[in-house]
């Protein structure tokens, strides 16, 4: 049995869309809170002096994680990855980790970021096989 593919262009690259494939992963979406915005604006060389929380969160980062099965696994997964997410969020604005705040637990992490979970991830893009 063969699938029917639809060809679309994105950034001058052909992408092939096929049937929807659910993958065994979930997504954590991270949105900044006021302390993160305050930290960005306190940097020695402000990147965007007129940055607002709304504009900062208009395109939040999403992190692919192991499949979230229930509330317990949600917390276990976040406990496992929150330090990496924290590092990624700060590093995307300022590479000198000496200027980052220290966070060593989830309660501290939640003072800086809101987290949304998406337990189902569907993969709509399939690359063609290499010849």
Q: Strand sequence of the main sheet, in spatial order?
A: 1-2-6
Q: Tell me the helix content.
A: 25-40%
SS content category = alpha+beta
Radius of gyration: 19 Å
What's the structural domain tally? 1
| Chain-averaged pLDDT | 85
Q: Low-confidence parts lasting 5 or more residues at pLDDT below 50?
A: 1-7
Instruction: Report the biggest beta sheet as strand number plus sense, adding barrel if it closes.
Output: 3 strands, antiparallel
- Give the SSE order as H and E letters: EEEHHEHHEE
Basic shape: globular
Number of helical segments?
4
What share of residues are in beta strands?
A: 25-35%
Please count the beta strands (DSSP E, at least 2 residues each). Answer: 6
Euclidean distance between termini CA atoms:
20 Å
């Amino acid at each position: 049995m063969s699938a029917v593919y639809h060809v679309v262009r994105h950034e001058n690259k052909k992408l092939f869309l096929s049937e929807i494939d659910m993958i065994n992963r979930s997504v954590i979406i991270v949105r900044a809170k006021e302390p993160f915005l305050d930290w960005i604006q306190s940097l020695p060389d402000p990147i965007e002096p007129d940055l607002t929380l709304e504009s900062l969160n208009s395109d939040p980062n999403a992190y692919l994680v192991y499949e979230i099965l229930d509330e317990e696994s949600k917390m276990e997964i976040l406990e496992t990855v929150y330090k990496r997410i924290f590092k990624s969020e700060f590093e995307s604005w300022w590479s000198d980790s000496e200027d980052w705040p220290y966070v060593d637990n989830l309660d501290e992490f939640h003072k800086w970021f809101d987290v949304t979970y998406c337990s189902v991830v569907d993969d709509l893009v399939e690359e063609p096989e290499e010849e």
